[in-house]
Write a structure and sequence with these properties.
CATH architecture of the largest domain: 3-Layer(aba) Sandwich
CATH class of the largest domain: Alpha Beta
Radius of gyration: 23 Å
Order of helices and strands: HEHHEHHHEHEHEHHHHHHHHH
Number of domains: 3
Strand order of the largest sheet: 2-3-4-1-5
Helix content: 40-55%
Shape: globular
Structural class: alpha/beta
CATH topology of the largest domain: Rossmann fold
Distance between the termini: 51 Å
């Protein structure tokens, strides 16, 4: 993985490369960007460039296989069928190498699925902090830098964060931390203040389309997928493989049809409660992904309602027609629909009772979907 192959903003690549050439490499760096914009692959490519400066002919190969002794990783984990107690990143190192080699743009939820903890919320805990401290206290194997990449660093709990603060303030000689995050607001301010920040923007449609064409996809289909992916290369690959969960479509269609028919019909409410109960039994990450899917559908419906059909890319496998649904999504309700869904995601993330959260959201949708334009 190198600067040439990683998909990212060219200005970001240029800036990071210049820090290496000019030897102005900050010891604590924060890469901030949404899923699928290349923060993790860029962190690996950046680390590879740094390590190859003083390495031998095999250094780059070892970095590509994530087996370089001076390149370390930490990432969220939880107890699983394999690890019953005190899970740490090193407990899943083999799975991590496989996961990254398949697709380094993948999401946190996909990582949880990969290691069998999809119904749990992983974390980077104090046991990881102890391992990080121990690894970085050793001398460099190749006489150069030691690099620690912490993926989804916002998942560090307070105990872990506080333990790493001193390392970030006074790191061992020639040690570099690269914290990769999607939501910087979940980090401690004391950690934010100690890091040099690099922000990653969404990928351009032309960047995604070019990569898909390079991998053998016809240009028209590549361009369509690039538009639908909304700057997220991981989503583009999922669309290419048709991995979108058809359950989301089924849940959404059932939900909005119940909300529409519920006005003045109390008999629908038990069905809504059953719907909420069904989804609340899924893992929290699945619930969040579903609600994000709902947000996307409502936005697409708004675009269809106001005649911008060239921007409507969503396709349904069922007989649900977005043009028939579109008139129910307009300027008088879209902001409140979006706010309520985002609030639900927020409360689910913070371990709220998902059945109550989804039931409350459903009741609000009954009113909002009947709001006149």
């Amino acid at each position: 993985m190198d600067f040439e192959t990683v998909l990212s903003n060219p200005y970001t690549k240029k800036y990071l490369n210049e820090t290496i050439i000019s030897d102005r490499i900050a010891h604590a760096q924060l890469f901030i960007g949404e899923e699928g914009v290349g923060t993790l692959p860029m962190a690996i490519a950046y680390a590879t460039e740094i390590l190859t400066r003083k390495g031998d002919a095999n250094t780059k190969i070892k970095c590509e296989h994530l087996s370089h002794p001076d390149l370390h990783f930490a990432y969220p984990t939880a107890t699983s069928d394999k690890i019953k107690d005190h899970p740490t990143s090193s407990s899943f190192s083999e799975e991590w190498r496989s996961f990254i080699s398949e697709n380094p743009y993948r999401s946190l939820y996909e990582w949880y699925q990969f290691i069998g903890i999809a119904n749990k919320q992983g974390k980077i805990g104090v046991d990881d902090a102890k391992e990080i401290t121990a690894k970085l206290s050793l001398k460099s194997f190749e006489g150069g830098y030691k690099i620690m990449i912490i993926w989804m660093a916002e998942r560090m709990n307070d105990e872990c964060s506080n333990k790493l603060l001193k390392l970030l303030e006074e790191p061992p000689a020639e040690t570099i931390f690269i914290l990769v995050v999607e939501n910087e607001n979940l980090l401690l301010n004391t950690i934010l203040s100690r890091c040099q920040i690099t922000r990653f923007t969404k990928l351009g449609e032309e960047v995604i389309a070019k990569s898909l064409i390079k991998n053998g996809l016809a240009e028209p289909e590549a361009q369509q997928i690039a538009i639908r992916s909304q700057g997220n290369y991981n989503k583009a690959l999922s669309l290419l493989k048709r991995e979108e969960d058809s359950r989301f479509e089924e849940w959404f269609v059932k939900w909005v049809r119940m909300a529409y028919s519920a006005k003045g019909n109390k008999g629908v409410l038990p069905n809504m409660l059953q719907w909420s109960d069904e989804i609340s039994k899924e893992g929290r990450e699945t619930q969040k992904l579903f609600l994000e899917y709902c947000l996307e559908i409502f936005r697409q419906a708004l675009l269809a309602n106001y005649g911008t059909n060239n921007l409507v890319y969503i396709e349904f496998q069922s007989n649900f027609n977005i043009n028939n649904f579109a008139p129910f999504v307009h300027h008088n309700n879209i902001q409140e629909i979006q706010r309520n869904i985002e609030d639900s995601i927020y409360h689910i993330e913070r371990n709220g009772n998902s059945k109550i959260i989804l039931t409350d959201l459903s009741i609000k949708l009954i009113r909002l979907i009947h709001t006149k334009a």
